[in-house]
Amino acid sequence: MNKGLGENWILLRGLARESAHWGDFVPLLQATFPDAKMTTLDLPGAGRFYQDESPKTITAIADNVRNHALELGLLQQPVTLLALSLGGMVAWEWLHNYPDDICGASLISTSFAGLNPFYERLRWQIYGKFFGLLMQQGTYKRELAIIQLVNNNRERDGQIAKDWEQIQKLRPVSPKNMYRQMLAAATYQPSPEKPTQPVLLLNAKGDRLVSPSCSEAIQNKWHLELRTHPWAGHDMTVDDGDWVATRLKDWIASSRM
Fold first, then answer.
1. Most exposed among 117, 140, 161, 182, judged by the fewest C-beta atoms under 10 Å?
2. Assign residue 85 a region: left if phi > 0, alpha if psi is -120 to 50, beta otherwise?
3. Total tally of structural domains belonging to the chain
C-alpha cells in the first residue's frame, strides 16, 4: 500500500507551456479525486516565471520547481506528480533526488536521452512543421499550428487556440527560454536507478511529436506500468482528459491494494 498516493497532486507542463495550458483538465481531475489537493506549478521561464531565465539542465529546473513547492508549503505530505513531456523529465529527476517528497508519479508522453534516438524524441517527420511554426507570424496562427501538431481531436481547435493566444499574450515565453528548455530536454541523462515509488507511464498511438516508442523504452528499462491511448496526440489531457483521469484512478486504486 502506498500511503498518500493521489491525495496531494502537483501538475507540471512541458516545453514552453504553463499551468493555464491544462485548461479544463484540472477541474476534471479534481472531480475524479474530490478530496485531493490539486496544485499546478510553472517551470522557470514560463507562466508566472516567464520573465525569469530558464536553467539549461533538467536537474536545475527540478531544483527550482522543488524550491517553489517548498515555499508554498506543498511538501508537508508526500506529493503525487503528474507531468507532461519535458515536465516528465523534471518529475523523474525530482523523484530520484528527493524521494521522500514524492509517493508516486505519472509521466505523460515523455522521453529520455540515451534510450531513444533524437529523431524519435522529436519525430523526424515533423521537423519542418515544428521549426516552421516557431517562425509563424501572428500569435493565434502559431498557437493554432501548435494545437494541430500536439492534439488530434479537432472539435475545439478554434476555442483552444484563442485561449492559448491569450496565455501567450499575457505571459509570453521568450525564444531564449524555449531554446534553453529544449537544450535541457535534449541533454538530459536520467538516473539509471528504478524508483521505489509507483510510476505510471501514459502515451498515445497518435503522438506525432514524440514517438510512443519512447515511453515503451522507459517501460522496458525499468519495468514500469504503461497505458496507451488508441488515438490521442501528444497532449492527451486536451484530447481525451476523461481517459487520462480514469487511468490515474485505476492506477491509484491498484497501488493502494
1. 117
2. left
3. 1
Q: How far apart, in Å, are the Cα atoms of 235 and each of 23, 149, 197, 252, 255?
A: 12, 10, 24, 21, 25
Asked if residue 70 belongs to a domain, the reply is yes
**CB 208 within 8 Å of CB 149:** yes
Read off the pLDDT band of 127 (50, 70, 90).
Answer: very low
Q: For residues 84 and 107, what is the distance between their CA atoms, to the nearest angstrom?
A: 6
3 lies in some domain: no
2 found inside a domain? no
CATH number of the domain within which 13 lies = 3.40.50.1820
| Residue 137 domain flag | yes
Name the residue with cell 508516486: 104
Instruction: Pinpoint the alpha helices (H) of 151-174.
Output: 157-170
Distance CA 204, CA 123 (A): 14
CA gap 71, 111 in Å, rounded? 29
pLDDT digits over 97-123, tens only? 999 999 999 999 999 988 987 767 774
Measured at the alpha carbon of residue 26, what is the angle toward residues 166 and 165, in degrees to the nearest 5? Answer: 10
- Residues 184-243 have pLDDT tens digits of 988 898 999 999 999 999 999 999 989 999 999 999 999 999 999 999 999 999 999 999
Give the domain extent around 31: 8-255
CA distance 35 to 31: 9
Nearest to 145 by CA among 160, 123, 166: 160
| pLDDT tops 80 at residue 160 | yes
Residue 69, Cα to own-chain centre: how many angstroms? 17
